[in-house]
Amino acid sequence: MHRRRDVRGQFTGAPIPADVLGRILAAAHAAPSVGLSQPWDFIRVTDDRTRRAFHAHVQHERTVFAATLAGERAERFDGIRIDGILAASMSLVVTYDPARGEPAVLGRHAIADAGLYSVCLAIENLWLAATAEGLGVGWVSFYREPFVQELLGIPAGIRPVAWLCVGPVTHLETTPDLERHGWARRRPLADAVHAERWRGRDDQLPVGSRRG
Amino acid sequence: MHRRRDVRGQFTGAPIPADVLGRILAAAHAAPSVGLSQPWDFIRVTDDRTRRAFHAHVQHERTVFAATLAGERAERFDGIRIDGILAASMSLVVTYDPARGEPAVLGRHAIADAGLYSVCLAIENLWLAATAEGLGVGWVSFYREPFVQELLGIPAGIRPVAWLCVGPVTHLETTPDLERHGWARRRPLADAVHAERWRGRDDQLPVGSRRG
Description:
- Chains A, B: Residues 3-167 form the Nitroreductase domain.
- Chains A, B: Its EC number is 1.13.11.79.
- Chains A, B: InterPro entries: BluB, Nitroreductase, Nitroreductase-like, Nitroreductase/BluB.
- Chains A, B: GO terms for molecular function: 5,6-dimethylbenzimidazole synthase activity.
- 2 copies of one chain form a homodimer.
- The first copy, chain A, is of the alpha+beta class.
- Chain A has a single domain, classed as NADH Oxidase.
- Helix content of chain A is 33%, strand content 15%.
- Chain A has a 4-stranded antiparallel beta sheet, with helices on both faces.
- In chain A, helix 1 (18-29) packs antiparallel against helix 4 (114-132) and helix 2 (48-66) packs antiparallel against helix 5.
- Chain A starts with 17 loop residues before the first helix and ends in a 17-residue tail after the last strand.
- Chains A and B meet through helix 1, strand 1, helix 2, helix 4 and strand 5 of A and helix 1, strand 1, helix 2, helix 4 and strand 5 of B.
């Protein structure tokens, strides 16, 4: 978990052995889900035309975001790589189907987003399993959902949740990219922990194992 | 990942050693987040009055859900335990703060929910780390968000994402509760994997490592 990174620039492009891919998908599929609905799907994308089309869309969205920045923030963003779509061995697109397990998904009547949460749990399992297998994973989120639905023929009502670039890497960085580029800094764990109520001070908690 | 379960009935109530709690929170805090925003917080709840009040609310929501069921579904649901709030050593409530990292969270301009996704990745890290430490975790989702906000003094705009019951357990079941009770069945992994496009058949993929 502490070794895992969000990878952009270290992909080698070497193929992922089929048994390795099977294991990381099985790990994702073993995630918890509300009402045991398992509302996720995984689309493996290797086709060059598809990846190029998505890459061009992401580049466009990069300019949209860049236009909201000024001065030093804009300069820093210039140096930050936001995707490894063409360099990674493959992309795995993870989707959410709200109809899975209906009617009456146990545990979803009061919280409509609970199904979406389940999909994210599967994504983290996938990411950690890939890390354990020595692969890198990079989550690209500079895209509009309707573009991805159209590109991959995803039916209306089914929502793309993540576009993940996956594959062997030369190495995993030890510091997150955005910290290395001075874009953001990690927050101390102690600031995120509260006792009994919001902002309840937690003096007892030893956070000595804090690794950021 | 394959050993992890969503626990309701096996909590012993024994205390969680402080160093163990520190490690599972550090694991959660090491999760990936959009723009390195780390938009999560963790509220440790042990107070009996708070837990009883939440438990009563969950029991009420159980009746709300039960009223939507009929016949055999209603009967099956009767036998299913939906929470371990009072039996578990503690609860950990995980929240999402959309203002964290603003303005201009890198990677969130096109997908508003990306911050919420990050919180879920932290929850899965927490869950897996707890499993590795021999603890059980149960995600309770029979509640209304405003009730939890009020109960724990969570400010408007910050959203409770999960109420997790955490603690030592007698054992972890090998089959999910909802499958043991005949409520739902796990889906074969092969059904969830597509090649290149939605419903693209993936004949190459070995899913021999499939463990459901």
